[in-house]
Amino acid sequence: MSLETGYENRGARLEMIPLMDVIFLLLVFFIYAMFTMSTHHGI
């Protein structure tokens, strides 16, 4: 029983890592878009 729960926890961690990477990339993209828009309007 304990081996099955440990395996499920590992699977959940492996599924969370790509999700966190996607969220981080979206965050970076929106920050970059905000900076490019602000500099464009500033000029």
Description:
By secondary structure, the protein is mostly helical. The chain has one domain. Helix content is 95%, strand content 0%. The chain has one helix spanning 2-42. The termini are far apart. The model has no long low-confidence stretch (mean pLDDT 77).
Average of the residue pLDDT scores: 77
In total, the number of domains comes to: 1
Secondary structure category: mainly alpha
Q: Supply the number of helical segments.
A: 1
Report the order of strands and helices: H
Number of strands: 0
> What value does the Rg take, in angstroms?
19 Å
Shape: rod-shaped
Beta-strand percentage?
under 5%
Low-confidence spans: none
Residue share in helix: over 70%
Summarize the biggest pleated sheet: none
N- to C-terminal separation?
A: 64 Å
Please describe the structure with a list of short key phrases separated by commas or semicolons.
43 residues, mainly alpha, 0% strand
What order do the helices and strands come in, and which of them pair?
Elements (H helix, E strand, L loop, with lengths): L1 H41 L1
Describe this structure in a few short sentences.
The chain has about 45 residues and is mainly alpha-helical.
